[in-house]
Amino acid sequence: MSDGDMRVQTGGMNTVSSGRFFTQVSKYLAPDLGVDLKARMEARLADLKAGGTLFDIGLATSLAVASDKEHVTDDIFGSDWWVDEIAAQSESIVRAAYMHAIQLSLEYAAANNSPPLPIQSLWMVQDSEVRFEVHVVMSGAQVTLILVTPRPPRGQTVPPIAHAFDEDTWVIGSEAQLVNVRNKYPDEYKPRLVIEPIPGDPGSVARKMRILGF
Predict the structure, then answer these.
(1) Beta partners for 137?
(2) How far is CA 97 from the centre of its chain?
(3) Angle, alpha carbons 141-55-89 (nearest 5°)
(4) Environment class of 164 (CB within 10 Å of its CB; exposed 0-12, middle 13-18, buried 19+)
(5) For residues 42 and 140, what is the distance between their CA atoms, to the nearest angstrom?
(6) What is the pTM of this model?
(7) Are residues 158 and 198 in contact, defined by beta-carbon separation less than 8 angstroms?
(8) What is the DSSP string of 48-100?
(9) Pick from 99, 11, 117: which is nearest to 52 by CA?
(10) Tell me: the pLDDT tens digits for 46-73?
(11) Cα separation values, 90 from 35, 56, 75, 159, 203, Å
């Protein structure tokens, strides 16, 4: 199976992650030199309102590639991962969440005569509850979108370690808890998951570990 044909779990093995896709979306919806963020957000809001699939919008904006289609339609928004009730609602919920987040960002810009707020996307998985919802939180610095879902089925194929990247996300907890988090990753990933003390916090049981996404 080639890398281009590989179906992988979007995100990571951690409870909270961004993963490669949400990291790309966050960069796309953040200020960038030479990019008119307001015009970009208005165009994507129009796309979302027009009703095209999220995969097609991602493909048109280079946030997805053709080989992602099966993963997006069957896993993220389909019944390979979720019970039928969730699968039937998932894409509609995510679409509405991004519409609301973009609208909040544009309204903030208009009210404050300022650039739109960047939109940060995160994914949180739940082990004990069957829920699929999105929380949209606004501050004066950004709009944060948090997708809350059940944990996808175990045994998902993950790409080689060369495809993994350091997320801008750290887990803080006891060393035993961070070992538990690290043990959820494939063996080849574990050497890159380093448990460290918090500088300036001597004698504390708290440790930090930067997580990997893919």
Answers:
(1) 144
(2) 13
(3) 80
(4) buried
(5) 20
(6) 0.89
(7) no
(8) HHHT--HHHHHHHTTSS-GGGHHIIIIIITSTTTS-HHHHHHHHHHHHHHHHH
(9) 99
(10) 999 999 899 999 999 999 989 889 888 9
(11) 30, 16, 10, 25, 45
Q: Which residue shows structure tokens 């810009």?
A: 109
Q: 3-state DSSP call for residue 4? A: helix
Residue 166 backbone phi and psi in degrees, to 5: -75, 120
Q: Which contiguous run of DSSP H or E holds residue 15?
A: none
Is 58 within 8 Å of 20 (Cβ atoms)?
no
Dihedral sign of CA atoms 19, 126, 151, 86 in order: negative
The β-bridge relationship of strands 206-213 and 165-174 is: antiparallel
Alpha helices in the chain (DSSP H): 19-28, 37-50, 54-60, 69-70, 84-112, 175-182
Q: What would the two tokens of residue 89 be?
A: 């609602």
Residue carrying structure tokens 């979720």: 82
7-53: pLDDT as tens digits:
444 555 678 988 888 899 999 999 998 999 999 999 999 999 999 89
